[in-house]
Design brief:
Radius of gyration: 18 Å
Bound molecules: calcium ion
Strand content: 15-25%
Low-confidence stretches: none
Order of helices and strands: EHEHEHHEHHEHHEHHHHEEEEH
Number of strands: 10
Largest sheet: 8 strands, mixed
């Protein structure tokens, strides 16, 4: 069996982010989580970093270091998503205030130091949020791009339409310049867009599986996702909201659950109408070399079975 893959989760914890990194922590034979790095996104970074600590304490994994990162996008004011996840990002279930502390230091510096201290090609970044911390890390250490094994990210939309504007997915919309730099960096990227995550719906039956497990973690995430559900159902009219960010962990654990294509992707940074849109050259019409594997379909049943089995094992 190969050694576990070293990963860093860069995240703005709402519940689906927390499920993503907790499911990874429950998979030590496959994934070694080096750190959690928090960034502003769903809510401000003071809250996302606190939510990361809360989730780790819930799982009894206070050994995992958490670093606070960028408080705002590279060049724009922060746009948040309290309308989806509530004021705290974790509305719906009152987790205790964290007793553990953040690590000293800035998350982009921690990403550089952790990744560069490991052999080339051995650290994968799991990006669940606006890509500000990653862009700052690349600016501080340009060699990072060739040193990383790759990035697996949730972000963008191909033909699904946007979820924050008609054209853009939230993570790319919040910091389009950061996303553009990451896609131009040469780092091997796996992109999991809304086209994929909108196939992975938290139906009542799936939600009930969390509650009926009867564990503290199952109960907490039942209530947290139940809160999200109200917004998502009203918005989409579907039988449940998407569980977006845990797709990143599922891809690392079981890539066969997904299908996609190596393509060229560019991020719109200028147009007010389509700011943050991910333009995916699915048919190769530009002739430009591929810079990402864009996943377009997911085995939703296999995804939920895998992620909830790991989450509930904690
Ligand atoms: Ca996220």
């Amino acid at each position: 069996m190969p050694p576990p893959r070293a990963v860093i989760f860069d995240t703005d914890p709402s519940p689906d982010d927390a499920i993503a990194f907790l499911a990874a922590l429950a998979s030590p034979e496959q994934l070694e989580v080096l750190a959690i790095t928090a960034v502003a996104g769903n809510v401000p970074v003071e809250l996302t970093s606190k939510n990361a600590l809360k989730a780790l304490e819930l799982a009894g994994r206070t050994d995992i270091p958490v670093y606070k990162g960028a408080a705002a996008p590279l060049v724009r004011p922060l746009v948040t998503a309290e309308h989806v996840h509530g004021r705290t990002g974790f509305d719906g279930y009152a987790l205790p205030e964290p007793a553990t502390a953040l690590q000293p230091g800035f998350a982009p510096d921690a990403i550089v130091e952790l990744a560069m201290s490991r052999p080339a090609g051995s650290v994968t970044l799991c990006c669940l949020a606006p890509l500000t911390n990653i862009a700052l890390a690349l600016a501080r250490e340009p060699r990072l791009a060739r040193h990383l094994a790759g990035i697996v990210l949730m972000g963008g939309a191909m033909s699904e339409g946007g979820n924050i504007t008609p054209a853009a997915e939230f993570n790319f919309y919040v910091d389009p310049e950061a996303a553009a730099r990451v896609f131009a960096s040469g780092i091997p990227i796996v992109m999991i867009p809304l086209d994929c995550t909108h196939q992975a719906l938290i139906t009542d039956a799936r939600l009930e599986a969390l509650r009926s497990a009867g564990t503290p973690i199952g109960n907490a995430f039942y209530h947290l996702l139940e809160f999200n559900k109200r917004f998502d159902r009203a918005k989409y009219g579907w039988p449940g909201g998407p569980l977006h960010d845990a797709t990143v962990t599922a891809y690392l654990l079981s890539p066969e659950l997904f299908a996609g294509r190596d393509v060229f992707v560019a991020i719109e940074c200028a147009s007010p109408l389509t700011l943050g849109a991910s333009v995916v050259d699915w048919w190769g019409v530009t002739g430009r070399p591929a810079n990402a594997l864009v996943l377009r379909t997911i085995d939703a049943e296999g995804y939920f079975n895998l992620i909830f089995e790991r989450l509930l094992s904690l």
